Amino acid sequence: MKHLLLSLFFISCLSFSQTPCENGFAGIYPCSGYDLVSEISLSTLSATASLANDSWGWTDPDTGNEYAIVGLSNGTAFIDISDPVNPEHLGTLPTQTFNSSWRDVKVYNNHAFIVSEAANHGMQVFDLTKLRNVNISTFLFADAVYSEFGNAHNIVINEDSGYAYAVGTNTFNGGPHFINIQDPQNPVAAGGFAMDDYSHDAQVVTYNGPDTEHVGKEILIGSNASIVSIVDISDKSNPVSISTTSYGQVGYTHQGWFTEDQRYFILGDELDETEVGFNTRTIVYDLNDLDNPVIHFEYFGPTSAIDHNGYVNGDNFYLANYRAGVRVLDVSNIAAGEMTEIGFFDTYLANDSANFNGAWNVYPYFESGNILISDIERGFVLIKKSEEVLNVSEVDNEETFNIYPNPTTNYLKISSNNALSSIEVYNVLGEMVLQETTSLKEYTLNVEHLSQGVYVLNINGKATKFIKS
C-alpha cells in the first residue's frame, strides 16, 4: 500500500502548477480551473519587439522535451519548457526582412515554418533540433528561405501529406499557395488555388469524416474573410472546389477548426462583436455533407471580447479570446447543439471589452498538459488545468493531518492524531528539497529558505500540498 501511495504522490506532484487558481485568481490573473505555470515578458523575449502574435509548439522526439515557439513583431522566439516552472528563452530568429504585427508558425518533421505579412519575407525554415545545443538567449538563423511568395498571413501544414499551404499571400489572389516540404530544408513550389475570396486562415486534413464521398482525400477548409470555402486539393495540379457557404451578420470570417470526428467545424468571426455588438460569437457548421454545409448553431460567450484563434483537442475547444484570455469549452455534446465553458485564464486584466489586446493564440497540444498562450502585450504565458490534490481523505481515513498557515512565509505547523514519523518536501519537479524525522504529534517545519511556489508534503507516506508565499 505504501508504494501505491508514493506512486500516486509522485504523479500528483508532477502535475502541480506554480501559482494555483484559488478564489478566482492565479496571482494577478482572473481564472477558473486553470493554474499559472510560468511566464516570460515580451521585453525578455526581445527588447525591441512591440508585440507578440502567433505561437505553436514542438516536442523533441528523442528527448521528449517540449518547446514553445512565439511569434514577435521582429522575429520568432524559442523557449525550452522541459522545466515548465523555469522556462528558458533559448533564442530569437530575426524577421527575414521587416518587422510586422503578423507572423505565423507551424511545425513539421522537426522544423518550424514561419511566414509574415512583412514585405518580401517568404517562408523561413528552421531546424528545431538545433535547440538542443544553443546558448541561452542568442540570435538564431534560418536554415532555408522559400521565396516564391513575399508576404503571407498564415501557414497551414498537413503533416500526413508533407505539404504546407501559405494563405493570404501575394499569389493566387490570396488563396492557398502549395509547397512540398517533405524535404524540409528544400521546399518546392507545388501550385496553388485562387479562391473566390482572400484566404485569411485554413485547416487542411486528410479527410476521415462522415462524408464517405471524400474519405481519404486531402481537404482544405478556408476561412476567407466573408465566406467558408471547402476544396479538394488531393491533386495539386487540379484543385476542385467542393462548396462555399456563409452566415448572417458577417464581420470577418477569421479562423476555424474541425472537431476530432471531422463532423463539425467551429468558426470564429473577428469583427462581428464590434460591428454588431453582441457577446463573443462562435458559429458551428455541420459538415456531414461537405457539399452542403449547414449552420448547426451559434454559441455566445459570457463577455463581449473578440474571438481570435481556436483549436480542438479531444472534447475541448480552446479559444484565444483577446481581452477575455483563453476560454475552454466542452464540445462533447456539440451534436445536441451545446458548447459549455468549463474554464478560463484571463491574461488581460483591465476589462473584457471588444478590442485587440490580450490573448492572440493558444496551443493546447503538449502531452504534458501545459497550455501555451501568446499574449500581445505580455509575451509568453504557460498555464495548466488545475488538478485535485491527493489528500488524506482520499488515501486513508484512519490518520489525519492539519497543516497551517497555508500559504506560509517561514514556518509550517503540522499536527496529527497519530505520531508523525517522516516529513518530506518536494518541489513541482518531484525533487526532494527538505526531509525531517520526528516522533511527535505536532511539529513546526522551517521552510523560510524555500523559494516562493507550490510544494508537496509527504507526511508518513501521504501527500498534500502547501504554498510558500
Label this structure with key terms.
Methylamine Dehydrogenase, Chain H, 38 strands, 5% helix, 2 domains, 469 residues, five-stranded mixed β-sheet, mainly beta, disordered N terminus, six-stranded antiparallel β-sheet, 4 helices, Immunoglobulin-like
Determine the number of helices (DSSP H or I, runs of at least 4 residues). Answer: 4
Strand content: 35-45%
Unreliable residue runs? 1-16, 388-398
- Spatial separation of the terminal alpha carbons: 33 Å
**What structural category do the secondary elements indicate?**
mainly beta
Tell me the name of the CATH homologous superfamily of the largest domain. Answer: YVTN repeat-like/Quinoprotein amine dehydrogenase
Give the tally of structural domains. 2
Mean pLDDT: 91
Main sheet: which strands, in order across? 1-2-28-27-26-25
Tally of extended strands?
38
Topology:
Layout: H1 2-14, E1 25-26, E2 29-32, E3 34-40, H2 42-45, E4 52-59, E5 66-72, E6 75-80, E7 88-94, E8 103-108, E9 111-116, E10 123-127, E11 138-139, E12 144-146, E13 154-158, E14 163-167, E15 177-180, E16 188-192, E17 201-206, E18 218-224, E19 227-232, E20 240-245, E21 253-258, E22 264-269, H3 272-275, E23 281-286, E24 294-300, E25 310-313, E26 316-320, E27 326-330, E28 340-345, E29 359-363, E30 370-375, E31 379-385, H4 392-395, E32 401-404, E33 411-416, E34 422-426, E35 432-437, E36 442-446, E37 453-459, E38 462-468
Parallel strand pairs: 7-11
Antiparallel strand pairs: 1-2, 2-28, 3-31, 4-5, 5-6, 6-7, 8-9, 9-10, 10-12, 13-14, 14-15, 15-16, 17-18, 18-19, 19-20, 21-22, 22-23, 23-24, 25-26, 26-27, 27-28, 29-30, 30-31, 32-33, 33-36, 34-35, 34-37, 37-38
